[in-house]
Design goal:
Length: 335
């Protein structure tokens, strides 16, 4: 299967991933004794659509090891189900009323999220035609990934902006985004029969890719105008670059004051965005982003593998490592 980009690959395998998810939902019926759980998860999947088809990542890891995509399709389904649950819970934690719809209530969404993020992934792993020891190993990866991801998310929620540094934010990113990606890359390597050493290298690649993707997501949040990070008071990597770039204690205090006010003031959000997009801030941001991109490519260089699929992985890294933000003045808000 020749494909130039990860989007090309997803276009070719998306129906197979959907079929795997549908099969998992069908299996819920005999387990639950009814259709309520299946229907709720179906609503959640329709409500919480993932914006980027990164479900191809386990396919690419497995194919890099074996030249074969097919056996990892169930892991792509695990990826979709896990991230659907995580994104719903993240929206709920943000508390901006984005978690309900005419068809999915909050309580129903919570129950569906629990099933989607834990029960269904484990059931999918149990259904794989692999030795029992491999299923045990894969199930343990799910448990570890959930804990690491939750730890990172909790660190993000509890982050103290006054003491935040670029290193402390990267530690949180490595957990909340890197943890789940390292989980799925390690699972794909395990399923491929890779050695323990290669599994750990793929795991580290997942961690680094997760950091890149979180930074990509942070940039998209600004460019889209959603500004959820500013509304939530999230301590982002870009914010710590701005704090580091502040030449005086007073200018650092200006950044902190606008960060605190941005939760409730459109004007403060506009002013803070202008500070975040200052040339010096973005210069440091780009330098660090390039460092993480280079590390991901270094790991791929060590790993090697099937040359039909490694270029797609390299493209995915470069896509995640794009510098999307540009210096510009943001017009002040009127209120």
């Amino acid at each position: 299967m020749n494909c130039a980009t990860y989007l090309d690959l997803h276009h070719r395998v998306s129906l197979e991933i959907e079929a795997e998810i549908d099969a998992a939902l069908v299996r819920l019926g005999p387990v639950s004794g009814g259709s309520a759980a299946r229907n709720a998860v179906g609503k959640l999947l329709r409500h919480q659509k993932l914006r980027h088809p990164l479900s191809v990542l386990p396919l690419l890891v497995h194919a890099a090891e074996t030249g074969d995509l097919g056996p990892a399709v169930p892991l792509s389904a695990v990826h979709v189900l896990w991230w659907t649950s995580a994104c719903y819970l993240d929206d709920l934690a943000d508390g901006h009323g984005t978690t309900t719809s005419s068809s999915l209530g909050q309580n129903e969404g919570l129950m569906a999220s629990f099933i989607s993020g834990t029960v269904l992934p484990i059931q999918i792993i149990r259904s794989l035609p692999v030795p029992a020891a491999v299923r045990v190993h894969l199930t343990a990866e799910i448990a570890t990934g959930c804990v690491v991801g939750a730890e990172g998310q909790l660190c993000d929620i509890d982050a103290n902006v006054d003491g935040a540094t670029r290193n402390s934010v990267i530690a949180a990113y490595r957990g909340k985004s890197g943890g789940p990606f390292s989980m799925i890359t390690a699972m794909a390597a395990i399923l491929s029969g890779a050695s323990d050493e290669r599994v750990e290298l793929w795991r580290e690649f997942g961690y680094v890719f997760g950091i890149l993707w979180q930074i990509f997501n942070d940039q998209e949040d600004i460019l889209s105008g959603r500004n959820e990070d500013l509304l939530n008071g999230t301590v982002t990597y870009l914010l710590t670059c701005a704090l580091d770039d502040a030449p005086t204690v007073q200018s650092r205090e200006d950044v902190l004051e606008r960060h605190a006010a941005a939760r409730h003031s459109e004007r403060a959000r506009s002013e803070l965005t202008e500070l975040l997009l200052a040339p010096g801030v973005l210069r440091q941001y780009r330098t660090d982003l390039d460092t993480f991109r280079d590390e991901a490519h270094r790991l791929l260089g060590i790993l090697g593998g099937d040359e039909q699929y490694l270029p797609v992985l390299r493209h995915l890294v470069d896509h995640a490592a794009q510098m999307l933000l540009q210096p510009h003045l943001v017009p002040a808000a009127t209120s």
